[in-house]
Amino acid sequence: MRARKAVLFAAVATAAIGSAGVALGADANTAVAADQQPSLVEDFSYPGADKILTDTGVKLISGDGHILFADCSTPRNGDIGLMRVRTTDAIGTNHDGLICFQVKAIPGVLVLKIPAVYEIRGDGYAPGAGHKVKADLTTDAGAHSTVDVNPNGSTPVGVGADPNNAPTTLLQLTAGS
Q1: Contact 133, 88 (CB under 8 A)
Q2: Nearest to residue 92, comparing CAs of 140, 59, 61?
Q3: Cα torsion 93, 99, 100, 101: sign
Q4: Closest by alpha carbon to 168, among 100, 113, 94, 98?
Q5: pLDDT tens per residue across span 78-107
Q6: 94 CA to centre of own chain
Q7: Whole-angstrom distance, CA of residue 108 vs CA of residue 174
Q8: What percent of the chain shows pLDDT beyond 90?
C-alpha cells in the first residue's frame, strides 16, 4: 500500500510540476517575445534621403555608410578633403551644381542619381593622399561607363570631357584601396 501511495504521489507531483512548467514556460516565452525588438533587416537605404532630395535636389538611394553626403564647406583634414561632383543642374546645398561627399572608410559604396555631371574631383590634396574611387555613369541613351576618379585632382566626364559628349548621370561611387 505504501508503495502504491508513493508511486501515486510521484505521478501527481510530476504532473503538477510538468503543468506548472508548461504554464511558466509559456508565460516566460510570451514575456521574452514581448521584450524583444522586431527583427531588423538592413536594406542599405540612405538615411534622410527624402529630406536631402527635398532640400538639395540630390537623390541618394543606398550605401554602406562609408561614403556620405557632406556639406561642401567642411574643412580639409590635412591632405584629405571632400570629393566634389559638379553638375550643370542647379542642385546641391547652395543650388550651384556642387555636391560633396566624404569617404569615411574603404571599401565604400554609394548609389545615387545626379544628372548632368561634368566633373568629379577626388578627395586628396597631396600626391598619394586621396582615395581610389570608381564612378559609374550613364547617358540618357543608356550608354554606361565606369571611370577611375583622379584621387588628387579632377576627372572630366560627359560634356566636361568633350562638349560633343552626351550629358551623363552619376549612378554610383565605389571607394576601394
Answers
A1: no
A2: 59
A3: positive
A4: 113
A5: 999 999 999 999 999 999 999 999 999 999
A6: 23
A7: 6
A8: 73
- For residue 82, how many other CB atoms are within 10 A of its CB? 22
- Cβ burial of 27 (10 Å; 0-12, 13-18, 19+) is exposed
Per-residue pLDDT, 7: 41
Tell me the pLDDT band of 36, cut-offs 50, 70 and 90.
low
CA distance 47 to 68: 10
Phi-psi region of 116 (alpha: psi -120 to 50; beta: other; left: phi over 0): left
Contacts of 156 (CB under 8 A, 6+ apart): 118, 119
CA distance 152 to 165: 24
CA distance 93 to 71: 7
Q: Can you tell me the distance from the alpha carbon of 75 to that of 1, in angstroms, rounded to the nearest whole number?
A: 92
Q: And the C-alpha cell for 49?
A: 534621403
What is the C-alpha to C-alpha distance for residues 100 and 94, in angstroms, rounded to an integer?
11
CA distances from 22 to 2, 84, 106, 118 (A): 30, 63, 51, 68
